Amino acid sequence: MSKIHAVVLAAGQGTRMKSKLYKVLHPVCGKPMVQHVVDTMASMQVKDIVVVVGHGADAVRAKLGEDVAYALQEEQLGTAHAVQQAAPFLHDKEGTTFLLYGDVPLLSAETLAALLTYHEEQEAAATVLTAVLSDPTGYGRIVRDEAGEVLRIVEHKDATSEERAIQEINTGIYCYDNQKLWKALAQVKNDNVQGEYYVTDVVGILRDAGEKVAAFEAADPDETMGVNDRVQLSEAEAYMRRRIVVEHMRNGVTVLDPSSTYIEAGVTIGSDTVIHPGTFLRGRTTIGSDCVIGPNADLTDVAVADNVSLTYTVMVDARVEHESTVGPFAYVRPGSVIGPKAKIGDFVELKNAKIGEGSKVPHLSYVGDAEIGAGVNIGCGTITVNYDGAVKHKTTVQDGAFVGCNSNLVAPVTVGQNAYVAAGSTITQDVPDNALAIARERQVNKIDYANRMPRKGKKQS
């Protein structure tokens, strides 16, 4: 196989998106469209990737980073002109060059590899990826000769009525012999309705030079979908979401209702895990094996170990160790680590909290900026009072401690090993190991007090 290069066109403004966000940065399944294209090339071991930027160039550079080269198209004069901006990076290289688009995010590595293989087998100067559509309106048509060879590609607005009846369309995706590409680009003219330089004209130029131009039909036309507005964005999202879910299911994950399960592109899930409806798995989330996730779990950048159960839970930038349970109706905020065999119950909020092995925060508690040891019980309604209006302070509850219901732990404070905090206490000082802390007003019963109080509806003498 020859050396492989890629040019990704991402310079268009995308006015039909009607958005302040540059078009190719709109996410599909949690990842910008152009990032999907670049990542697919990287997965195919393509080393020379040149992204042609224009509108929103700085934003694209900031998102993609330094793993690709950038060529700037300052003036939008058509696709051939855009490709020419990559010449300083590639014109002297041998091998094959992909031409791709930053707003065509659904193309799989398998389809592009098949296109590349066919291109090399045909020893073609150019091979275009085509698709057959029931309604090809708006797309460039593939015009073939009687032997099936590609004669030219004609844009819809420049096509005759006979040419518009052709259903095989140009997806805009190509493989080129790199040296022949740059020679042909130099001959492209702008004598067309739009006055632009079309990269599609390269096909005719190569044909006139006696070069072979091949065409490879995509097995799934939906993969070639471009995104120009919010409607197409939603269609691309639905397609990719389905593809991601299917891949997980084929890898041994049970997804009870794929249509109501949202898994982003960077998520990994172990075998024999069950995903219930209404679940969102986002960002860099990783799920282990034999877990039960959902219903209605929303996880962003969360690491979940094996044999974990999460129900009706929102978690962000947190970690859950093996054999723990979280939920229902728990909120686990950034910086939190839930240790092995721990239990986080209903209406519990954690923030930057470390929960030790086998510890329990069963219900109706807030634990923030805290380190909870192993084997600790946090009673219902316990609050770590971590904020004094200016600074966050840490609460430490050491191994084996028992905190009674409706307690306030006013940080900074430490509850020692095997210590007890009586229910209803407000703890403002450290509790020694093995001690019982009682910090509440002594109960006073006033006998017959109610009989001396005036009551509504009762006439006073």
UniProtKB/TrEMBL annotation:
GO molecular function, one term: UDP-N-acetylglucosamine diphosphorylase activity
Compartment(s): Cytoplasm
Keyword Lipoprotein on entry: no
Cofactor(s) required for function per UniProt: Mg(2+)
Cited Gene3D superfamilies: Hexapeptide repeat proteins, Spore Coat Polysaccharide Biosynthesis Protein SpsA, Chain A
Residues given in the record as UDP-N-acetyl-alpha-D-glucosamine binding sites: 9-12, 23, 73, 78-79, 101-103, 140, 155, 170, 228, 333, 351, 366, 377
Binding site for Mg(2+): D103, N228
Region (Linker): 231-251
Pathway in which this enzyme or protein is active: Bacterial outer membrane biogenesis; LPS lipid A biosynthesis; Nucleotide-sugar biosynthesis; UDP-N-acetyl-alpha-D-glucosamine biosynthesis; UDP-N-acetyl-alpha-D-glucosamine from N-acetyl-alpha-D-glucosamine 1-phosphate: step 1/1; Nucleotide-sugar biosynthesis; UDP-N-acetyl-alpha-D-glucosamine biosynthesis; N-acetyl-alpha-D-glucosamine 1-phosphate from alpha-D-glucosamine 6-phosphate (route II): step 2/2
Keyword Transcription regulation: no
GO CC entries: cytoplasm; membrane
Region named Pyrophosphorylase: 1-230
Active site: H363 (proton acceptor)
Reactions accelerated catalytically: alpha-D-glucosamine 1-phosphate + acetyl-CoA = N-acetyl-alpha-D-glucosamine 1-phosphate + CoA + H(+); N-acetyl-alpha-D-glucosamine 1-phosphate + UTP + H(+) = UDP-N-acetyl-alpha-D-glucosamine + diphosphate
Entry EC number(s): 2.7.7.23, 2.3.1.157
Record field: transmembrane: none
Functional note: Catalyzes the last two sequential reactions in the de novo biosynthetic pathway for UDP-N-acetylglucosamine (UDP-GlcNAc). The C-terminal domain catalyzes the transfer of acetyl group from acetyl coenzyme A to glucosamine-1-phosphate (GlcN-1-P) to produce N-acetylglucosamine-1-phosphate (GlcNAc-1-P), which is converted into UDP-GlcNAc by the transfer of uridine 5-monophosphate (from uridine 5-triphosphate), a reaction catalyzed by the N-terminal domain.
Subunit structure: Homotrimer.
NCBIfam families: glmU, PRK14354.1
Protein name: Bifunctional protein GlmU
Annotated source species: Brevibacillus centrosporus
